[in-house]
Amino acid sequence: PRGEVKAWPVRVGATAPAHARRGAGWSLLVLLSGGLYLPWAFTAARRSLWRHTRVAGRSMDDHQPAAAQLLHWLLMLGLGAGVALAWRSGPGLGLMAASLAVLAWPVLVFLQARRRAHHLSWARRRMGFEGRCAQVYREVWPLVAGALLVMWGLAAAARWGQPEGWCIWGLVAAGWAMALPLAAWGWLEIG
What is the spatial distance between Cα 81 and Cα 42, in angstroms, rounded to a whole number? Predict the structure, then answer.
């Protein structure tokens, strides 16, 4: 109220051994299903952690269905498969497809963050997400631009076939990775 920030205690009631036992069971189901159970295992793990988290004495909860996670993963696999097939057709087409995938990545990050926030609740009140996709692009543009620069630079160095080109673009890639703030790398953990 009136711009005052209140500090509320956050407690996680899940014990590490109990969560590890549940995680081992989910991992076994993922192995037995050949990886098909993975979205459900991630959903169960997330729900377990949120349900054991209490903020100001009230519990959190996650209402995201596993099918939504499955749809997101299928979209990611389809994008990756499309890039792989484009590379098989030729390096030029593959480079264009990889560039489009890098440009589409912030949209996927935005959709994932929005979906996760809308499925969270605290004290039986649903959370919300008011961010915009343009804000995600504004935050991660150094990461996207650097990835495109490195990809196209490596492709140019491979085309030239000169060892000096590889060294130059290796330095560019290393400099780009070291120059990015840690916050930009944090976006990679969301998608």
Answer: 22
In this structure, what token pair is assigned to residue 52? 């054991």
Sequence-ordered list of residues with C-beta below 8 angstroms from that of 171, at least 6 positions apart, any chain: none
What's the CA angle centered on 94, arms 136 and 105, to 5 degrees? 10
pLDDT tens string 28-46? 998 999 888 888 888 888 8
Which are the contacts of 177, defined by CB distance < 8 A and separation ≥ 6? 146
Alpha-helical (H) ranges within the chain are: 16-32, 38-51, 66-89, 91-118, 133-160, 163-179, 182-186
Instruction: Look at residue 52 and tell me whether its pLDDT is greater than 70.
Output: yes
Q: Say if residue 69 is exposed, middle or buried (CB neighbours under 10 Å; 0-12, 13-18, 19+).
A: buried
pLDDT digits (tens, 9 = 90+) for 72-102: 788 888 888 999 999 898 888 888 899 989 8
- Number of other CB atoms surrounding residue 125 within 10 Å: 9
Q: DSSP of 29-64, one letter per residue?
A: HHHHTTTTTHHHHHHHHHHHHHHTEEETTEEEEE--
